[in-house]
Amino acid sequence: MKRSTPKLQTKHSLEYFCTAASGVKEFPEFVGVATVDKDFVGSCSMIIHRKEPKHTVIKKFFEENSKEMRMYFLECQDNERFYASVIDGIKKHLNQKTGKHVLQQHSGCEWDDETGETKSFNRYAYDGEDFPKLDLLKHEWTALTEKALATKLTWENNKVIFFFSVVLPSVSLLQRSNSSLVSCHATGFFPDMVDLFWMKDGEEFHEDVEKGEILPHNDETFQMSIYLNTSSLPLTDWKKFSCVFQLFRNQKNITISLDKTKIRTNKNKSAAFYPIVLLPFAVLKSMSPALIVVSYLFLWLTGIRSFTHLK
After folding, report:
1. What is the pTM of this model?
2. Where in the sequence is the domain holding 15, given as residue range(s)?
């Protein structure tokens, strides 16, 4: 009698369970858990401050893909801040100044290997009651209770944060004078899980390099700079260098070559308008005319102010 071959599983799922608490001393302010096909694979919390893989296969994957591990580490840190601000916003909408409150999120995706069908979901609960859920087809939030209406409107007005959009930056080269460091400046990106680095002949270059911190803008996007000392660099070697902006959720990098003709200096303040041209078309298409005008004004002002921070 022949043994039947076990049927391979064709339907798979990736799920995230996140919980944020306010005023609950017995519970961490944030805890996140990830599962694959219902099996626990990792966690992130205010206690361990990192994404901790548990499954052997997942551990091996992260060992072989260190940048993916770094992405999850940064996302863990971001989630701590994100959920703290979200629960604070809900408390303000509901006029809750004190008390114990809990926000829960269940998100993820499911897919079928045989049919290729996929399904995604993202829903919230607050103090044990259903709250908004995201309709991915209509690209809008649905308030599941009357209490959630104000939160729904706030989230829909902040599409960058609450629709988890990816916003690519304007990347430019800046220099105060010929003897100053050359700054590779990326501005207007979201989220802040990014890397910015110099390359020489296709390899990461760390000598004579100073890396700045990721700084927030008032519109929820971020900026970052990395500096290269070119004082002893022969002009013939400049073509070997390039600056790379890498957004971990996006497979495409933004690369700008080290070229004197591309460097903006204090002597050419009209160059402050360049970021307007570089604003990605995909972003423009999703913005209202009023928001485009405001964004242009913001980028113009940022371009002028950036010269005061050059080294």
Report:
1. 0.56
2. 11-162
